[in-house]
Amino acid sequence: xxxxxxxxxxxxxxxxxxxxxxxxxxxxxxxxxxxxxxxxxxxxxxxxxxxxxxxxxxxxxxxxxxxxxxxxxxxxxxxxxxxxxxxxxxxxxxxxxxxxxxxxxxxxxxxxxxxxxxxxxxxxxxxxxxxxxxxxxxxxxxxxxxxxxxxxxxxxxxxxxxxxxxxxxxxxxxxxxxxxxxxxxxxxxxxxxxxxxxxxxxxxxxxxxxxxxxxxxxxxxxxxxxxxxxxxxxxxxxxxxxxxxxxxxxxxxxxxxxxxxxxxxxxxxxxxxxxxxxxxxxxxxxxxxxxxxxxxxxxxxxxxxxxxxxxxxxxxxxxxxxxxxxxxxxxxxxxxxxxxxxxxxxxxxxxxxxxxxxxxxxxxxxxxxxxxxxxxxxxxxxxxxxxxxxxxxxxxxxxxxxxxxxxxxxxxxxxxxxxxxxxxxxxxxxxxxxxxxxxxxxxxxxxxxxxxxxxxxxxxxxxxxxxxxxxxxxxxxxxxxxxxxxxxxxxxxxxxxxxxxxxxxxxxxxxxxxxxxxxxxxxxxxxxxxxxxxxxxxxxxxxxxxxxxxxxxxxxxxxxxxxxxxxxxxxxxxxxxxxxxxxxxxxxxxxxxxxxxxxxxxxxxxxxxxxxxxxxxxxxxxxxxxxxxxxxxxxxxxxxxxxxxxxxxxxxxxxxxxxx
Length: 660
Known about the structure:
Layout: H1 2-21, H2 29-37, H3 50-66, E1 69-70, E2 77-84, E3 91-97, E4 103-106, E5 112-116, E6 121-125, E7 127-128, E8 140-143, E9 158-162, E10 181-184, H4 186-194, E11 201-207, E12 211-222, E13 234-241, E14 247-248, E15 251-252, H5 256-274, E16 282-288, H6 296-305, E17 311-317, E18 328-332, H7 337-348, E19 354-357, H8 365-369, E20 375-380, H9 398-413, H10 439-453, E21 460-465, E22 472-476, E23 479-482, H11 485-491, E24 500-501, E25 504-512, E26 530-531, E27 542-549, E28 552-561, E29 576-581, E30 589-594, E31 602-609, E32 612-623, E33 630-632, H12 639-647, H13 651-658
Parallel strand pairs: 7-8, 8-9, 9-10, 13-16, 13-17, 17-20, 18-19
Antiparallel strand pairs: 1-12, 2-12, 3-4, 3-11, 5-10, 6-11, 12-16, 14-15, 18-20, 21-22, 21-26, 23-25, 24-25, 25-27, 27-28, 28-32, 29-30, 30-31, 31-32, 32-33
């Protein structure tokens, strides 16, 4: 392979230069990391290449050396599906066509370089240097400098811009433009301008060929403390992408600033924090692949991470410590202002100048913010050297990296900067009911819903991320069993639970509020618990009460009936029997029992109290042998006893006192 031959020559030259200049070995961990990742054998670390695989192996070795734990299993490598455009397999040509079909072919990567493009492209048209050319829509525009293309009133077939130093962007399909933008060398520009009158057409062909491959992120973990009995799983994610833009004409683009610098800071931060006492949250160190290829690695990882944690926040390190860096630039999406300001304040304490930006850019923190998690990227303000051959290790200031890492270590060691302080915020939509899920996916969704529900009390609600759809889902507690009557009375206005009833003492109440389904609830922050403040007695759709007296007791189920609500008692089945009884002294009643259970007799009646109708079920109870619970005790042979007991109960007085 041509690249490998060139790499061998470069290694030889590098060794010779080292011997001549007697360069010392790297002085510290930062420099060692940058030197290793920018070595010629890494071939620019393009995802999908052997050089990238070597960089991945090196990352895994560093995580092991530091003493991090894998996120799962015994490997730091976490695979994901990656769309790869092999530079050696793409069909990109540029030809100048003269009279008699005489042609001049320009070499991609030397004479010209595709900067932005759509899917496939094949055009042969004339050229112009005039932005106001009346036939601009049918020509390619040649420019001597870069301009804001949005200022063009007419879109040409393509734009070719004279560029002194090519910016090597990773090949990929772009959804942002259907007009190719091409970098051309000064010599190519001069040739096209000189031959403009003789040139009949300029032919540009772009044929992109993609492959689906398996790539790997490299992820290590510092476990946090486990203090809560049922902890909410939280994490802080420190990230940096380790991939690069590869090579051009056999010469690797070393990518020292972008992003060997960020990786070196991540590794030293992990080393420092390993020696400190951990907070309750896990600290996840993620070296992303595919950062230069539409953030493919981090996009996949955020979805994977929701399987392990309820919420987390992200600090991403990308292109830091350049000699011409300017201020430290903290970039965030609009849901991460709080995190950005807090990290900025921490850096200011060490005299690092700060600038803030909400420019969307193309950094891995976007993969987190797009899923509502607070996230930021710390980078240099000045980044003109990235994606060029000038991005080499000699332009990195390692003392600055150490200063930045020390500030971040202090920030992360502070308990107030745990994930609870930076909960996700979202305006995501609920998932569609029409979506189809497998049985396994439904099981996972139900388990997560139950786990979230267990953290709520009656009348509380919150939003959380569905582990299958990765969208926000609203969950609320509309039913609960309450053993302290004062709790229910404090939550629901107008309700009163009598402590004594017909010689029995209150033991518990099971409350349902089905009408909460129709309430509009606003939960702006994920995982934040909210409480409905104006619950009324009318919100209660059913109330099950238990009163006891030693080892016996009574159960009363009360269901307020709506104005037009009908309960049909004319039913029977092999397992349930219902018998109606008429009485002149009391309201009509029903007796119900389960055929296969002897102790299952219930008394059912309908009452009208102060113009309102109620459906009620009553049965006797006895305590289990272990003394921990109650069960029904009335049998079919005890029906006279049960009827006599119920008809002596002051049911109407109870309903009035309950306030339903």
